[in-house]
């Protein structure tokens, strides 16, 4: 085989691996949002109480967010390919159990197992990606394609959830993962590179693993229950304090352990720490688009689940188009920092427009412009991914991947707790003041959109003050000098 043929074969193998990684990430994100439009049908069929219904989402989010950091590090130690395949197998099997659930308890248990499998699989995907794509231009393109699954996945989930629920029934929002999961595993076997890992002795910190996993899971549980108990309740303050103590104990342990689970050097990079802060703020804000917009269309405008999913399709298309065809080119020319700033400006504009939507909104004039501006997400997530993984080394790429995804899940959980609590409180106040149901709901959603806009402005400030365009990691190929700025 000639040198050119070998190069072409390696290139095809890398892009095949990227397709596998992106599909897994898409499945995990879809299962976080696909249930939002199917929840009423599930409640009616399985007899969930209003309070119990939230556990369809919470049972998935708690293990997913709590195990990502540990799973990412274990991928470095025992092999990222092994962790990826095991997670996919568990996620697929749990999806079948969820689709076949005949009771509320069985569905919640299956959703918990889905969360565990999702954590094992998705924790290592970015670690695999950055070790496969070392050329600066190829990596930017690969991250743009991969980030499409994160940026547009929630919107696609709402579209797909509406279609499947109305046409086939809610069971199929889970059953659809079976053929996709099996195909992913079969394609992953030849596509993903074999890696042996650096060995458990390099980071088998059992005490640290216990501290961080229990701290994260307890913290996420506390946050998602805020809507039920309130921020100032003994439940929230007590469990929140315990979670912080556990996480502080983990940080102290990592500073002194001979083989730390998470070497603290990973947080010394200005860009990495800043990217995590921006990611936390941005994803907390974007919950109001992913979920509250759907609630507004169904509860105020009277859209069906299918209508809501189709109405949000332009958002998925615009995000996908920007992620796939625009973000990499702009990043190579102007650097990730400036692209991130441009995306945050677009997202802030979308949130500000949502603060003005009326009770009797017109889709074309009031909502469609929002779904066009939301394309800024296609600029934000690829840039954050590149910045957040910019200092990852081959021996801790899985850890960096797990940490990046952990911040993502914590941000989503905080968005759920903060924005829904504020919106519900505002709705109750407006009802007490004599407003009708639709007007009160709209007023509550306006408050959530206003807070989201504020969070995005804060993310923009961090981007301007903290972030700098990263230098290519040692050993990577740089893009031509005229295409990549050398200064921020």
From TrEMBL:
<feature type="transmembrane region" description="Helical">
    <location>
        <begin position="338"/>
        <end position="361"/>
    </location>
</feature>
<feature type="transmembrane region" description="Helical">
    <location>
        <begin position="51"/>
        <end position="71"/>
    </location>
</feature>
<feature type="transmembrane region" description="Helical">
    <location>
        <begin position="145"/>
        <end position="164"/>
    </location>
</feature>
<feature type="transmembrane region" description="Helical">
    <location>
        <begin position="204"/>
        <end position="224"/>
    </location>
</feature>
<dbReference type="Pfam" id="PF07690">
    <property type="entry name" value="MFS_1"/>
</dbReference>
<dbReference type="InterPro" id="IPR020846">
    <property type="entry name" value="MFS_dom"/>
</dbReference>
<feature type="domain" description="Major facilitator superfamily (MFS) profile">
    <location>
        <begin position="17"/>
        <end position="471"/>
    </location>
</feature>
<dbReference type="GO" id="GO:0005886">
    <property type="term" value="C:plasma membrane"/>
</dbReference>
<dbReference type="GO" id="GO:0022857">
    <property type="term" value="F:transmembrane transporter activity"/>
</dbReference>
<feature type="transmembrane region" description="Helical">
    <location>
        <begin position="444"/>
        <end position="467"/>
    </location>
</feature>
<keyword id="KW-0472">Membrane</keyword>
<dbReference type="InterPro" id="IPR036259">
    <property type="entry name" value="MFS_trans_sf"/>
</dbReference>
<keyword id="KW-0812">Transmembrane</keyword>
<keyword id="KW-1133">Transmembrane helix</keyword>
<protein>
    <submittedName>
        <fullName>EmrB/QacA subfamily drug resistance transporter</fullName>
    </submittedName>
</protein>
<feature type="transmembrane region" description="Helical">
    <location>
        <begin position="15"/>
        <end position="39"/>
    </location>
</feature>
<feature type="transmembrane region" description="Helical">
    <location>
        <begin position="309"/>
        <end position="326"/>
    </location>
</feature>
<feature type="transmembrane region" description="Helical">
    <location>
        <begin position="83"/>
        <end position="109"/>
    </location>
</feature>
<feature type="transmembrane region" description="Helical">
    <location>
        <begin position="115"/>
        <end position="133"/>
    </location>
</feature>
<feature type="transmembrane region" description="Helical">
    <location>
        <begin position="230"/>
        <end position="252"/>
    </location>
</feature>
<feature type="transmembrane region" description="Helical">
    <location>
        <begin position="170"/>
        <end position="192"/>
    </location>
</feature>
<feature type="transmembrane region" description="Helical">
    <location>
        <begin position="399"/>
        <end position="424"/>
    </location>
</feature>
<feature type="transmembrane region" description="Helical">
    <location>
        <begin position="273"/>
        <end position="297"/>
    </location>
</feature>
<keyword id="KW-1003">Cell membrane</keyword>
<keyword id="KW-0813">Transport</keyword>
<feature type="transmembrane region" description="Helical">
    <location>
        <begin position="367"/>
        <end position="387"/>
    </location>
</feature>
<dbReference type="InterPro" id="IPR011701">
    <property type="entry name" value="MFS"/>
</dbReference>
